[in-house]
Known about the structure:
Blueprint: H1 19-23, E1 24-28, E2 45-50, E3 55-58, E4 63-66, E5 70-74, E6 81-84, E7 95-100, H2 102-106, E8 127-129, H3 132-149, H4 156-173, E9 180-181, H5 186-200, H6 216-223, H7 227-238, H8 242-260, H9 265-271, H10 277-288, H11 292-298
Antiparallel strand pairs: 1-7, 2-5, 2-7, 3-4, 3-6, 4-9, 5-8
GO molecular function: DNA-binding transcription factor activity; sequence-specific DNA binding
Protein name: HTH araC/xylS-type domain-containing protein
Domain HTH araC/xylS-type: 217-298
Amino acid sequence: MEQTEEIEKKPFEFNNTIADQTQFKVATVFEGKCTLSSYNRRDFYKISLIVKGTSELLYANRGIQIDKPALVFTNPLVPYSWEATNGAQVEEGSGFFCVFTEEFLHAGNRMESLQDSSLFKPGGDSVFFLDAAQVQYVYGIFSRMRQEFDSEYVYKYELMRSQVNLIIHEAIKMQPAVAYITPQNAAARIAKLFLSLVEKQFPVDSPRFALKLKKASDYASKLAVHVNHLNAAVQEVTGKSTTTHINEKILFEAKSLLAHTDWSVTDIAFSLGFEYASYFNNFFKKHTGTTPLALRKSL
């Protein structure tokens, strides 16, 4: 059964005015009825330590059977689903997870972008099976982080940042899991993950935000599939092309921003991935028969 429900339906919120405490969280997998796919936000990276149960981590066209202790790295911009197998349920002692922003680690002078790291990039090594000694070592790090998280120690986030880096370096030293499986009905899974990735880009909440994924090829790169494969799967499953889905979502968001914000057309164009306002005007008029300003005035 796919597990997508967030912890108690109340995921913690990031507040840019309070840096570390809003850019990092650590918890047990069982804590707060956590499920395997909790905290799939576009700005959160996630490291999970699974020590009990069997499950499958499924990407667009590949999957990994997790039937022994494992350390798992997931990137918020690479869609995945995590499904328990054989009716297994999350139970106490299943493991730990931590979530964090790239800014959290950059505060510790880490220069490499996490999206470029082999641990997090599309098609990279994301699952590492652990032997008994590695389980003990990584479990100990997570346990200490969890204890520190509730402490009043002034420099606890510096300490936890160092502990996250210890886990990352431990994984870099390991041999990755390579026993990939081919998910059933790959076209349906590719289409589902494509649509999930489209949704993750919205809503646009700042005129300074610009869409990172604008074309079918951008999505194909994140899903680690060929763009032709992506186009064929989405067309087969939904009856619409990838471009149609992307354009429909951009148009919906554009109308919402025109109606509910005071942003200029130039700001809206930039936030939706258009280099120039004229490109946005042409796109909008082609698909709606009117201009953005004309639509705003009519509302």
